[in-house]
């Protein structure tokens, strides 16, 4: 067992993937000598060389477009988008090409490209550095979309994402990069498949569903709720596409009350899909409508206001209270 | 791939220079400038004061008063030279580092701090200063500048736009699209690229194999490389390019050859990727020292003048600090302001819900 931060776990996961498969490449802005602005690729260029860890010109569309070409040639590129808000120049390549080319080829083409995106707020950053753009990509068929919430998952999920023959959009909770945990790097036996969710805290009275940075917030809320005599189950979805429906529906049916929590705006956010699906599948077992906690229907605010914008323990518990009010 | 040796102290031969690093006035076949001693003293004052604003902002960030700051250190001449070339009717589109141009456009330096302190996303009215808001996404503003210039054309106005961007941005699709648009529509625009040699950790040769100014010819308009640390040359070259634009001769790419003396931003650590000797070489080409040397040598200014500028800079810095600390935090419900120009029911609903939620904590 080794104690690692989430960013180090990603780094070690990529290192392992590069050792296992010489076709794995790292691409992005400042990923080489600097090791990425969050140091997630620190040391990889030094150890694997400039042909495998590529500092690209400053053009996100170029990063994804050329990654597609490299994948066509048999490589497995892992692309870093420096910040969530900078993914949009690449959105064209991701949505019109990366997601659709395999189907266009009638299955002849596989595009094992990973698009890593540090996401979410809470670090006091300027505009475009704190966003949660997952819904744009979950709405795009052809992409697998996952989000890690802790170091162990970061370590295993990045390796599974790289091994996947499908394109994967991989969200990393940037404000949790520095959180540490013990990780067993000797074996993959403990790995949960990266397209499955997990109950991270069992409970009986209501279910909190989260992914990425909000998992920790929900765990804290569940601990606080215990003092009020409420037993909250917390699900870490891990994968948004595909969605682990059996896990979600079993929990929702059992507790009858569900609160979905994400940083992205509630309006048309991923929680809307969850709420709809849970309502369709578990309607007669629900004691309350599925409630959503998330960002407001506004652009991400200046950092002095982000604590008000981001869901916190109080906002989660407020929603739980409302769920019990039905 | 070999490193571009010209990134060091040696000036590349095609550089337009009118004032050497030693403060010697030199001639150039294509560009000239005739400045009165008072005008040179005024340029010196601009350079010294924006450097002081920048240093104060870096200090404020170090003390936790700003979330982040993007320093212009080393790029003062490129920004003051080009900024002072603008007429009131011209419109400037900055990146997030154009504090010197903002100064030329009479934007209160305090207003630059708001974005970096996290109280707003951009705190001035662009129309009031003909200086657009800072744009953080690399290169986006170059297209806005071209569109604005196309508007000027359609209005039959005597004005031009200037689009600021860096060497890294030249790789972006938006910037290349802006070149094409400007070219085929003959838009009245100056593309002012401050080539400061570094895009965070990536050196110039990761963005280009040829000098950036030469890219212009492929798009069908002239390009010129100017000593970005020479305020005379930056002023002369930009003035000419703007004049050409206003007179219907279309775009020009100006590559101001300079150096980012500081980190990319205060969160960056350049010791991880560049050597100290490069910095030392560029220190000898300081944009402010050469103007000072020129003024001294030609007896256009005495020590009392420089002392008075220092005193003014100190006062400016202290005043900026005081006003930064007094800057009020935004109120929570401000989150819902200005999202739409017309009333919006969902915003109203969420604002009311959040207000009620906040009141719950007060009772």
Automatic annotation (TrEMBL), chain A:
<dbReference type="GO" id="GO:0007584">
    <property type="term" value="P:response to nutrient"/>
</dbReference>
<dbReference type="InterPro" id="IPR033248">
    <property type="entry name" value="Transketolase_C"/>
</dbReference>
<dbReference type="InterPro" id="IPR009014">
    <property type="entry name" value="Transketo_C/PFOR_II"/>
</dbReference>
<dbReference type="GO" id="GO:0003863">
    <property type="term" value="F:branched-chain 2-oxo acid dehydrogenase activity"/>
</dbReference>
<dbReference type="GO" id="GO:0009083">
    <property type="term" value="P:branched-chain amino acid catabolic process"/>
</dbReference>
<feature type="domain" description="Transketolase-like pyrimidine-binding">
    <location>
        <begin position="4"/>
        <end position="179"/>
    </location>
</feature>
<dbReference type="Pfam" id="PF02780">
    <property type="entry name" value="Transketolase_C"/>
</dbReference>
<protein>
    <recommendedName>
        <fullName>3-methyl-2-oxobutanoate dehydrogenase (2-methylpropanoyl-transferring)</fullName>
        <ecNumber>1.2.4.4</ecNumber>
    </recommendedName>
</protein>
<dbReference type="Pfam" id="PF02779">
    <property type="entry name" value="Transket_pyr"/>
</dbReference>
<dbReference type="InterPro" id="IPR029061">
    <property type="entry name" value="THDP-binding"/>
</dbReference>
<dbReference type="GO" id="GO:0000287">
    <property type="term" value="F:magnesium ion binding"/>
</dbReference>
<keyword id="KW-0560">Oxidoreductase</keyword>
<dbReference type="InterPro" id="IPR005475">
    <property type="entry name" value="Transketolase-like_Pyr-bd"/>
</dbReference>
Automatic annotation (TrEMBL), chain B:
<keyword id="KW-0560">Oxidoreductase</keyword>
<feature type="domain" description="Dehydrogenase E1 component">
    <location>
        <begin position="48"/>
        <end position="314"/>
    </location>
</feature>
<keyword id="KW-0670">Pyruvate</keyword>
<dbReference type="GO" id="GO:0016624">
    <property type="term" value="F:oxidoreductase activity, acting on the aldehyde or oxo group of donors, disulfide as acceptor"/>
</dbReference>
<dbReference type="GO" id="GO:0009083">
    <property type="term" value="P:branched-chain amino acid catabolic process"/>
</dbReference>
<dbReference type="InterPro" id="IPR050771">
    <property type="entry name" value="Alpha-ketoacid_DH_E1_comp"/>
</dbReference>
<dbReference type="InterPro" id="IPR017596">
    <property type="entry name" value="PdhA/BkdA"/>
</dbReference>
<dbReference type="InterPro" id="IPR001017">
    <property type="entry name" value="DH_E1"/>
</dbReference>
<protein>
    <submittedName>
        <fullName>Pyruvate dehydrogenase E1 component subunit alpha</fullName>
    </submittedName>
</protein>
<dbReference type="GO" id="GO:0000287">
    <property type="term" value="F:magnesium ion binding"/>
</dbReference>
<keyword id="KW-0786">Thiamine pyrophosphate</keyword>
<dbReference type="Pfam" id="PF00676">
    <property type="entry name" value="E1_dh"/>
</dbReference>
<dbReference type="InterPro" id="IPR029061">
    <property type="entry name" value="THDP-binding"/>
</dbReference>
